[in-house]
Amino acid sequence: MQTRKKPFREMPRGHSQTQTPHSLRCGSYHSTSTANMSKQFQFKLVLLGESAVGKSSLVLRFVKDQFDDYRESTIGAAFLTQTVTLEDQTTVKFEIWDTAGQERYKSLAPMYYRNANCAVVVYDITQTASLEKARTWIRELQRQADPSIVIALCGNKSDLSARRQVTEEEAKKYAEEEGLMWAETSAKTGEGVTEIFTAIAKKLPLTAPPSARAGGARPAGGAGSGVDLNRQSANAQGQNDACNC
Amino acid sequence: MDEEYDVIVLGTGLTECILSGLLSVEGKKVLHIDRNDYYGGDSASLNLTQLYRKFRPNEAPPSELGRDRDYAVDLIPKFIIASGELTKILVHTDVTRYLEFKQIAGSFVYRDGKISKVPSTEMEAVKSPLMGLFEKRRAKKFFEFLQGWKDDDPATHQGIDLDRDSMKTVYEKFGLEPGTQDFIGHAMALYLDDDYITKPARPTYDRIILYTSSMARYGKSPYIYPLYGLGELPQSFARLSAIYGGTYMLDKHIDEIVTDVDGKFVGVSSGGETVKAKQVIGDPSYFGAGSTSESGAIRVVEVGKVVRAICFLKHPIPGTDDSDSLQIIIPQNQVGRRNDIYIAMVSSTHNVCAKDIYVAIVSTIVETDKPELEIAPGLNLLGPIHEKFLSISPLYQPTTLGDQDNIFITRSYDATSHFETVVEDVQDIWKRVMGAELVLKKREVEVQE
């Protein structure tokens, strides 16, 4: 097996304070002021699903507790993060990747799935076709993503249940068959949104392999061989360096 | 596809993706299309299935090579110079958040039948077999002169005018041997041939300073490399473009570039539909490159060929201290050629292949009608070659600037070992498309804690 990037990163609190945030990636790790034993995890979460099922709205509700009825197709939703604190004071930070519309013409890049720890696959309960599409995305995840990925199937727009086309039973049955988490949500009212992300946050640290847990550090941090492009080396100007040759 | 766009971009190579990303950030409405079902065009990194489909269409990848998804084999051998222009664009656009970089472990140069490491520390320099004791002293004086140069302080010039005097004059002033000149001009200034020697010394000075400052930045070599292969670079700029509203369509065949009676760009047609835009940018393959039956305007010309051999090894390259990644430069004089031979090697450390596989690409500019023989001095350094995929790629350039027809064509990826010329192409096309210099601004991003 090749040395892939660790499927998740765990940072005991002490660690995160001494370690300079690795600015190549978005992370800056705020440490909580709670017990020293608290643990911090960071996971990459990707959204999938047909256009207009409410992927971005779901994230907007989760991250900012907002909803916009006339939200345009995803523009500029670059990179969102949200931290969930569990009952045992473990904090789970989600690094959330939106499709940025690249799902529309089947043009999502392999980079999108790369090292994703969890995926929220969204369908619209008022559109039968969107569940079909969700199944396609789940097959794609099983093909492209890491086998340990946690997948949650999410039936959005539960506030529109009068126009429901997808029954709870049907979706739930499919989710059980495929071993997926499942919930219905409404980005508009907020119903079920925090719950599904919290459920993912609870499940992720448990499914993480023990080896990765023991490793602790970020893959490119510490003594690692990764490089930080944003780091301004004192020598970067070069003009006054003693030459090596 | 019924909307109208500001710019249609054809091909998702790195040059096109950087432009697409920057144009979208600037507020342009961009439609970006690729005929392939993967990102990257000629600068893609392929998995095994894609690699075999491209080079050996009738053969399935052997199972002993391991899992398909563990592979990301670059089609062009290039590294990123740590302090170079591409790094600046990566940082300024913040696409670094999608990428993770590692150093290339070493840079080597071939001299008198052996390969030696380009020294990256003073200790290595002292021990290096590349120069004799006295030559080291002369070289030290030469480098001290370069490092100490200040344009506004004539005392640092030692009688040399970088803008007038040739590099030959500078070499002679410090009494450097031909072998040392090869080393400096090819392994540090990264020139592919010797044409630079008779030209003013300034560009060579700039290149040496770029090399040494890049070397100083991370320590082992002047190069960095993205995990999972170079194909991550176009993907990350494509994502940037998409985030700023760019529309992406892969696996979409372009039937025709539609122009009006004056030859001005109107749109592109695909499957009976025509999408309109004010301007089009694309790689040469979308504008008649390689096709013999091109009717109408000749938009691109071939200016040379590059031969590249992608080699799978089951061992590190001999004589390199088992480096997990490296560049070897074989200066042309050392093997009686006009152009250098390059070897670029990466391995599972960079998540581009299965464990215990090493992917080396040997390349040079074609000078004869037997290109494979031309890279033999490079292939011979590799030891036993497990698999070899040979390609001979024409290099194309556009015939026009696009100012008349709004058609802006990028250049093929050249034989240089880095991306500096790619960025020059980006800057050049940007200027022609936008009518102003490319100024890198830090973009506003929504980052929530």
Automatic annotation (TrEMBL), chain A:
It is a lipid-anchor. Residues 230-245 have a biased composition (Polar residues). GO terms for biological process: protein transport; vesicle organization; vesicle-mediated transport. It comes from the Eukaryota. GO terms for cellular component: endosome; plasma membrane. Its main location: membrane. Transmembrane segments: none annotated. One of its GO terms (molecular function) is GTPase activity. SUPFAM superfamilies: P-loop containing nucleoside triphosphate hydrolases (SSF52540). It is found in: Cell membrane. Residues 1-29, 208-245 are annotated as: Disordered. PROSITE patterns: ARF (PS51417), RAB (PS51419), RAS (PS51421), RHO (PS51420). Keywords: Cell membrane, GTP-binding, Lipoprotein, Membrane, Nucleotide-binding, Prenylation, Protein transport, Transport. The keyword Membrane applies. PANTHER family: PTHR47978. This is GTP-binding protein RAB5. It comes from Tricholomella constricta.
From TrEMBL, chain B:
It comes from Tricholomella constricta. InterPro entries: FAD/NAD-bd_sf, GDP_dissociation_inhibitor, RabGDI. It comes from the Eukaryota. It holds the Pfam family GDI. GO terms for biological process: protein transport; small GTPase-mediated signal transduction; vesicle-mediated transport. GO terms for cellular component: cytoplasm. This is Rab GDP dissociation inhibitor. One of its GO terms (molecular function) is Rab GDP-dissociation inhibitor activity. The lineage of its organism: Eukaryota, Fungi, Dikarya, Basidiomycota, Agaricomycotina. Belongs to the Rab GDI family.
